[in-house]
């Protein structure tokens, strides 16, 4: 019998919060529940969007620091556990996909790309949120903060996601919205497309991504420039 083909498909790996989905309302809503419990003022969504992008622990620390409260390690861990519990019950109260996501996924799949998610949200909550948003079945792997011993910006989080999805790391691209995503991809030696509409405290154009897009309708062209679709 002839040997089975060993060529792995090209792969597009997406961040979740601020990249595939607008989740700030539910994340900041949960943060504000904790702030209120601790006797602090709630943060306006417009002010707090830039605090997202490095996971829940960083969001909590940044949020409390914005109100002048430094957290002890014990308090930080206590609040983190409370955050995860509350957020798990409010994953998609207001969260929704960005315009053009489904069409962009369709285009990449038609070109032969495998799809995956690499996020600092916990894996279980990521899987459930993507299911609620109607696209969970599109991804060969959904890898979160707790999937591997390390997480973004450690490059092994990204390379591990590619391996778990069965993609070709030599024909891979990362799509994200923050310094964390860009630094992770650079450290892994993988090109990165940054979206302008996500969660970042610095414009992504200043962080050195390989391509920048303002809408998902531009993703296929950006990916084609980095990972030739003809090779798929």
UniProtKB/TrEMBL annotation:
Its EC number is 3.1.3.18. It comes from the Bacteria. It is an enzyme of class 3 (hydrolase). InterPro entries: HAD-like_hydrolase_sf, HAD-like_sf, HAD-SF_hydro_IA, HAD_2, HAD_sf, PGP-like_dom2, PGPase_prok. Its cofactor is Mg(2+). GO terms for cellular component: cytosol. Keywords: Carbohydrate metabolism, Hydrolase, Magnesium, Metal-binding. GO terms for molecular function: metal ion binding; phosphoglycolate phosphatase activity. It holds the Pfam family HAD_2. It catalyses: 2-phosphoglycolate + H2O = glycolate + phosphate. Pathway: Organic acid metabolism; glycolate biosynthesis; glycolate from 2-phosphoglycolate: step 1/1. GO terms for biological process: carbohydrate metabolic process; DNA repair; glycolate biosynthetic process. Mg(2+) binds at residues 15, 17, 177. The active site is at residue 15. Belongs to the HAD-like hydrolase superfamily. CbbY/CbbZ/Gph/YieH family. Specifically catalyzes the dephosphorylation of 2-phosphoglycolate. Is involved in the dissimilation of the intracellular 2-phosphoglycolate formed during the DNA repair of 3'-phosphoglycolate ends, a major class of DNA lesions induced by oxidative stress. PANTHER family: PHOSPHOGLYCOLATE PHOSPHATASE. This is Phosphoglycolate phosphatase. It comes from Methylobacterium pseudosasicola.
